[in-house]
Protein 1
Amino acid sequence: MKLEKEHLIKFYSLMVRSRKLDTLLIEALNSGRMAGFYHAGQGEEGVGVGACTFNMRDDDYLYPHHRGHAISFNLARGISPKGWVCRHFDKNPGEVEGPRPEERGIFGISGTIGGGFVLSLGWGLTAKKNKKGQVTLSFFGDGASGRGTLHEAMNLASVWKLPIVWVCENNQFGQFVPIKDAFAREDIADLAAGYNMPSAVVDGQDVIAVHEAIEAAVQRARSGDGPSLIECKTCRMRAHAEGVPDVNHTQMRSEEDKAPWRKRDPIILLKEKLLAQGIVKEEELTRIEQEAEKEVADLDQFQAQCPVMLPKDASILDDFLYAK
Amino acid sequence: MKNITYVQAINEALAEELERDEKVFIIGESIQQGAFGVTAGLVKRFGTDRIMDTPISETAIAGAAVGSAMTGYRPVADFMFADFMYIAFDEILSKAAKWRFMHEGTQSIPAVFMAAMGGYLGLGAEHSQAPVSYYMHTPGIKIAIPSTPYDAKGLMKTAIRDNNAVVFLYHKALLGLAGQIPEEEYLVPLGKADIKRQGDDVTLVATGIQVHYALTVADQLKDKINIEVIDPRSLEPLDIDTIIKSVEKTGRAIVVDEDISRCGVACEIAMQIVERAFDFLDAPVQRIAAKNYPIPPGAMERFVLPQVDQIAAAVKAVMG
């Protein structure tokens, strides 16, 4: 597809909204008004947004990853962030408008890194059995490339020619370990050759480049030609999780290492392109930013007045445990 | 009624469910040929899209089952030996068992995880285990263990139709066991124990091949002691009420289990008996289970696996 102005503005808006929601949770966790985990995703929005916004059908399947707790993927698939925000504050949002994640093929995230490969294999199998041209987009970080599940799933997906697009969001760190000390080659995409599938390495900071690479891979999968592996190079800009040190093994990561990536932040990169090519006026982008700012402030207010997620009694757990 | 073997009964159940519901398929390593015969001939009838051979990739087999189950299919994942399921415990114990719970009941995982379990064939530590307690320990997954051809067929059909993950463990020393089953279709529910033999003096609880050892002991001692043999058939859900009712009648209970004794199934059932029927007990509850060793190969396995004479000794002990 040819990307028109409206598409590019959609990319911009989705990335800005993801960033501001990510920032909300970072602030909330670090200030103590939210408990639990948060694995920030800022700086990596170009991957989920570029891949998922215009390349997927409603009945496709999507395995996101834990960075940003999948917010950019949810927004790109048209899912309201209300549930996402409330969940993090342990609040009950009540009925949320719009599709539920599973109605857009997002069934959840494995608590174990690399658990998504084999689940995605199952969705790919379903897609092939259904014969309706569905595809599965399965995202993983560079860290997950250490799992044996990658081998089992990629091998079988290729043997069975399943409609799966494997997308590595290489942000260069698996918790505290840099990928250069954890993987024997420069590019994770090189694994594809071993499974006889095509691959590409793209600039994960460039939302348009990501869109185009995934578009080609999705077309291939949809037409029955099997899986591909796309590696998007990006950089984790914060610690693995909020509250843990941002170290390379044991040494603090330097601002110098991050600076070149910060300069090529996916939001800034797109903004510069849009302005340089005269596609939009700066005021338009400013308005998008202000709208996102307001949306997030409103969501924060909304969650504050929602009740705690605590049903009347524990009997509801029986319904969670087993289907009738 | 017709005569059928245990392995044929499982095969019939699979064939009938494959026939009945096009969403059912079987996936596993070398299952088109099959190592134990439970899937024999199915590929000829249902084709390679529904009887899917895989490479040696246990996590992929289990994960593909979970993924396809949450998107509308009813997979039966075969692991050949129950021991090999350990490789896929993240997929079975965390994904299959917890995914619905983690998503607050909005999704379900109608998948069957099937394998041959058990010893008495001298196959050593990694091909003889009865790894049942792991599943019983994990909320969110059901467990069926048939001891007869009748139960094997009825339980498998129920397991496939259940909207939850079910581990189906058939005993590989029972494959050739013959028995009667109805000509017409029937189901055996999960969570309903079967009293395999009525008696008033001692309650023996056992599953799988241990049911037959318990029945052997009951027969040996029948002139002096009336033994009631209860086969729970599924350990989750567990029909504890039938067991308690029996213990209230007999006042004596022995739990036989082929899994490792320590933290095993027998501990759990014995404790539930103590909690609910202590006042009825005339003797301490006994357990007969595999001793706390890996299973040795060949003839040495008798040092570890439960034996008929141990069950008989336990019966005599509780009778005083």
Protein 2
Amino acid sequence: MRQKYSLELRDVSIALDGNTIVGPLSFKIKDGDVVTIMGASGSGKSSLLNFICGNLPNEFSQEGRVLLNDNDITETLPEKRQVGILFQDDLLFPHMSVGTNLAFSIPQGIGRKERQTLVEKALADAGMSGFGSKDPATLSGGQRSRISLMRALLAKPQAILLDEPFNKLDSSLRQKLRQFVFSHTIKAKIPCVLVTHDIEDAKAAKGKIINLGIQ
Amino acid sequence: MISFRSFSPFLEHKLVRAYPAWCLAILFLLPIAFGLTWAILPAFGYFPPLGFTSFSLDPWHDLFARPGLSKAISLTLFTGVTASLLSCSLAIFITATFYTSGIYKALQNTLAPILAIPHLSIAAGIAFLLAPSGFIFRIIASIVGWDTPPNLIIMPDSYGLVLILTLCLKEIPFFLFIINGALTQLNVANSMVVARSMGYHPYTAWFRVIFPQVYARIKLPIAIVLIFSLSVVDIAVFVAPNAPPPFVIMLLDLFNDPNLERRLVAAAGGLLLIAIIFAVIASWWLVEKIISSLWNYYIISGGGRGYGMHITKAFSYLILFSVSVMAFASLLMMIIWSFSLTWRFPSILPTKLGVDNWADCGLCSSLTNSFFIATLVTLFSLFIVISLLEFNKHKKIQTFWFYIPLLVPQIIFLFGFDLLLIHLEMKNFWGVAWAHWLYVMPYILLILYLPYIRFDSRYEQISYALGNSKLKTLLRVKLPMLFRPIIYAFAVGFAVSISEYLPTLIPGGGRISSLTTEMVALASSGDRRIISVTSVFQALLPCVVFIIALALPNIQARNRKGLAV
């Protein structure tokens, strides 16, 4: 099967107060592939993700383009980009049940019945059937991370960004969650950018590694 | 240099260590027990000081037979609920629209001094602005050519709309402040990134994701504002209708009635007021539950991503603009009036200005009373609260009890407390200071509690390890690091004390005058010049303390990046 490059960064550089903190940087990712961005803290990893999803604060200056499925989305509003993001904090909304958290991200225009089926399926995929009515605060760290990923994927993103998502977990849990995450991004057939400072994460991603520190 | 070590054995003694508990039992629990008991018993006909020694329901029969009772209650309900609902929702809209913008940061910096301005000053300013002979009608008169004020009953109007406006002008800044405090506890930026990545418009994302979390954290402030608005006395004297008056004013008249039997009726009325407040809060809670379940259903069934919110945005700009203009104009009115010697209708500006009003105001004793009561009471509150927190740092303190004075309408609680003062022959300066302390201390605790329990105790352990005593560690390490919240708590306590009306009037028996009691007494005189001078003093005093309180920590932090906020 011929795979095309679906996410592309062209000559991206980001500067703060005249000092370049990222780039210039270019890379392309195919559907289902992962590119890992490595670097120490303060190397501009998070700024790069903010640039891709459109949330770079105004005090940063940016250059270069980001293309998603051949569309230039550099100037598109974050909510119109269809780029999902996962942080090291799971950011499950504490005022909603686990099920409502999932339903919240299902796109508009899908009927109530189908939404419920999608939620059930996502819960089953996470190995958490029957957890729909639970309070997110009662879940374990691993469960929260899995729900957080399922929630990001239910929004049907065209690309997904992972901002050190395994950072807060202990090592055995970390391994399981890596497998869970990457198997799902492959299944969803979307490009994935992983930002981390842990070389084990990069190895598990099995993709290209870009080191931000040494450029 | 004082050696702190020599004090330590004395301070370690069990009974000495328990002094916060002793103080609180005597100074706090005793008046609360007394106040509440004597709020309840007279309502059922039992009041030995006046010779009523058998229980009966007569006070209730008398209460319900009062003319105008139902009108007074509906007025109180309408103004109290509308003002709370309006100010809370407007503050939420303003925050939702502006929280990322520069306006919001500028607003947060000006909020603290605005909050320090007593309600009563704002009320006086509004009265000068909106009365038939006030500034707005002077402008109209100069255009239309009137030479006497129009014969309108708008100040106060019979629906209490001006009362609602005044309450809103004061409560919107309060809610903006509280909501900002709640926002700092949330991971707003990243939650917004997540919600926007799911396709939600930023405004919609804020309301679905951030607002419910904020709301959960501002329930107690909402209850406090509701109780305040339903039972406010001093502002009502200025801007509320008087025939019939709000229910609380009716109660105050009953308490002050020369016919002492009326105090029993007033006590029954006090209990009715508590029942009304309870019913309002219960209904608020019920409506909130219904709305939140509908909300959840909407999200599950595929709520929209929300575009086309420009109207709400324009609305927020309009509200913020009008609130700022109104507040600013009413303060300006007050300042101009305080310097005006001749300002006849329909002149838009005074024809003769001077400082004579200031020279002849005769406010010396009120000013010194206000200043000394506020300073003493706030310092003592800080001392007690810090001791309490310091001696109980490994235990969980049930803070709820300390908020009781804020949760019971002042008029009910203070008349019971007054009996205690009569027993102790303390109807003087110290009685007033005691009453103020009951209202100031909860605020000090509210502000210091979180910074204090969040203090990283490893700093103390390091100090102990360096051979410093507990007291030295407290004074040289912990308190300097907590300087910002402490001085801020001082400013809030000071402002609260300055603005208290009933806690000065009732324990002082009219003999101790403060700026606030003076203003209310002057309200009926209608002498705008003296009212303005009093009002400027009343607003200026807490404002100056606030500005100093905000500046001092920055001076302390000038070469210490770790202390900066």
